Recover the amino acids of this structure.
């Protein structure tokens, strides 16, 4: 696959280096040529000096053939403008922009641009660590109304059945992994120590789930 990355800061350099290491074609754009020194010595992609929302620069980076695009500079406006050009002018199928203001996220989702907010992610993760120990949020849906979480079955949960963990409209068991094999459990499936369970949980029910699991 072919990817164009705008911004060769710490995130952009690591992203480009990883994609290159996986065998993808990568071009990374930055206005500061010194930024390319952050790339891994094994990076095999292209470097393009210029502004990430300049169409000629993006064409030089190969955006017309790109399967994916990510703008990860330190400026929200630059990232959004670059992402909108990639999405709506060059019709890149997959477009992601890093934004620091999470309030803008829904606006850009409506424009077909996926966003990553380190501010929102960090706040969410700290809440998890403080309030919901023993539980990992894999991802969120919508504007954070629903979390998909993962837990490891503890001594309190072992021996109980899936239907005992359900709360209609609030908590639903999505999958169970036992001995490295994933299944969609039935209501009568019994949890065993060492099982890993994924659940879809309303954000407002996270505290209730913690109480049910006695993780607090």
């Amino acid at each position: 696959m072919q990817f164009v990355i705008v911004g060769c800061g710490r995130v952009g350099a690591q992203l480009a280096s990883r994609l290159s290491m996986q065998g993808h074609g990568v071009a990374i754009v930055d206005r500061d040529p010194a930024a390319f020194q952050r790339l891994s010595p094994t990076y095999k992609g292209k470097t393009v000096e210029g502004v990430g929302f300049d169409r000629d620069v993006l064409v030089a980076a190969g955006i017309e053939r790109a399967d994916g695009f990510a703008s990860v500079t330190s400026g929200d406006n630059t990232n959004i403008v670059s992402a909108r050009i990639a999405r709506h002018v060059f019709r890149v199928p997959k477009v992601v922009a890093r934004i620091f203001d999470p309030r803008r996220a829904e606006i850009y989702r409506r424009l077909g641009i996926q966003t990553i907010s380190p501010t929102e992610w960090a706040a969410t993760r700290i809440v998890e660590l403080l309030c919901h120990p023993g539980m990992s949020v894999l991802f969120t849906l919508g504007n954070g109304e629903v979390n998909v979480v993962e837990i490891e079955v503890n001594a309190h949960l072992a021996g109980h059945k899936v239907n005992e963990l359900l709360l209609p409209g609030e908590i639903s068991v999505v999958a169970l992994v036992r001995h490295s094999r994933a299944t969609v459990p039935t209501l009568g499936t019994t949890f065993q120590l060492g099982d890993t369970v994924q659940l879809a949980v309303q954000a407002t029910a996270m505290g209730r789930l913690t109480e049910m699991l006695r993780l607090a």
Q: What stands out?
A: The two ends are 44 Å apart (CA to CA). The first strand starts at residue 2 and ends at 6. Helices lie at 10-21, 55-60, 76-89, 105-110, 118-131, 206-213. The longest helix spans residues 76-89.
